[in-house]
Amino acid sequence: MFELVRQHPRAMFYAAIVHIGLIGVLVFSFHWSDKPSMQTMDKGEKIIKATVVDAKKIDKELKKIKAAERKKQRDMDRAASKAKQAILNEEKRLAEAKKKSLSQQRELEDKRMQEQAKIQELEEKRKQEEERLAKIEQQKREEELRKKLEAEQQRLALEGDKQRLSTINQYRAMIEAKVRRNWNVPASAQEGMSCVLKVRLIPSGDVTSVLISKSSGDAVFDRSVENAIRKASPLPVPSVDTGLFDVFRDLEFPFTLEKKS
Length: 261
Description:
rod-shaped; 3-stranded antiparallel β-sheet; Fusion Protein Consisting Of Minor Coat Protein, Glycine Rich Linker, Tola, And A His Tag, Chain: A, Domain 2; single chain; 3 strands; mainly alpha
């Protein structure tokens, strides 16, 4: 009942007014009908007649009131039903709207997550590309450095080879000079005669063996050069720690008579 009053205050207010009005009519009719008519009836008849007439009126009015009450109740029930249905419809609409909103929120969240995944994928690709480019750049720098080092090593090697060759030639010249100082030119020697001897040396420069690997065609000439090598021992050779002695360990020694004095 209180819920109906809260939901339909205006309708309940009008119903209360109607009830009060009907009650007022009944009371007014009752009081007027209760007075006896002194002109047409005697006292006893007037009272009975008035009582009967008033009872009929009251019953008629009560029926009208009940009918009106039933009608109003039906109207109120219909109004309450409509209101309830409206509430249910509104609740249904709100539920559907909420469901739609949740669905839209889920869709938005899914899209946001998809975008986030795409961004993360792009970021990962960007990092991988940066790493790849950085690796290529590093390899390029390393290759350039390697080429520079190789060029420098070749330059140093060439310089070292030149220095090494120069040192070897210096020792060969000293060996030849010492051998010529100890050579006795044979009478059969002719200008342009030459022979090649294989001389085995030890680090001290001492000669351990001499073999004629290419003869001049004159055995006396060949033998004289061999004797000169032995007499010149020890020959001047570079020290072992220079790394050049191995060139002189088994020395190919060419000897030529360029001009006979």
